[in-house]
Model the fold of this input.
Amino acid sequence: MSTFRVATAYSYDNTIARLQRRQAELAEQQDKLSSGKRVRTISDDPAAAALAEREQARMQRVQADQRALEASRRSLELAESTLATVSDLYHRAKELIVQGGNGALNASDRQVIAEELDGIRERILALANTKDTLGRPLFMGLGVEDPQTRPFEAVTGAPLPLYGADDRAVRAYGVAGQEPPTETSLPTGLDGRVIFGFSYDGTTYTQGNDSIWETLDRAIYALRNNTLTPGQLSTELGQANSNLATRLDAVMTARAQLGDWLNRADSMKAAMRSREDYHIEQASELTDLDMVEAISRFQTQQLGYQAGLSSYAQVQRLSLFQYLA
Done:
């Protein structure tokens, strides 16, 4: 009788332990089905978890490159639209310079044209200092000498009078050159000195410079100078028009470069997206659950658990009187 009691107790304990184990396995399988993940913690599969973490890190690097590329793209798009406006202003300035050479105009007519050219000059200076959404000048080249300055600033007290005025010089603070594109990034700015022409450098002002501001100043001064002969006026306006054509070519070249970079940005974006998808797929293969297999396993475990409950119910009905009977 004592032996029976020990065996019955052992049977109870063993059955309960099996039920608890199966219940835990069933609950774990339910959690996996809910999350869709085979590896939820590193203990589930240390090797797969480590490989998945590496794929996750690679994916995050690609995503960081994508964000940087998108920021560069926005800056380049803004630069292109800015230069489109500059180009329109250049064309208008050419029209005005040609119009100003008309011998039928009087001094008052030429003054009106000079005033419009002066307004165009100021607008171009403002556009040359356009900033992107992060506050970086678009045409600063490799940077600016002083973070508090703009790439191009109107200065006073230039060492040489410039077409009758000593306060018309524009100083270039932007550092010459620009960053080259890489496989994962594009420049965020352009070399404004190449586009707008180098101007006063803070020490000397070289006459004959074809910067857009000197070009316009030359035309404005000629139109306002009533002492010039028709031949002299024609010469000055002709030289200004020739310099303006050079500046317009520089703008068109810059816009073509921007168009190439924007096309490259599309290709880079597609390539980055493919790499991101690849890393996501690799991480998924390492950690995701095979739903068909998981459901089959869950059903098998559920049947096993139900069988265990039935077995336990049978063991519970055992008693000494039933045994003696």
Observations:
- The CA atoms of residues 238 and 275 lie 55 Å apart.
- The first strand starts at residue 152 and ends at 154.
- Strands lie at 152-154, 170-172.
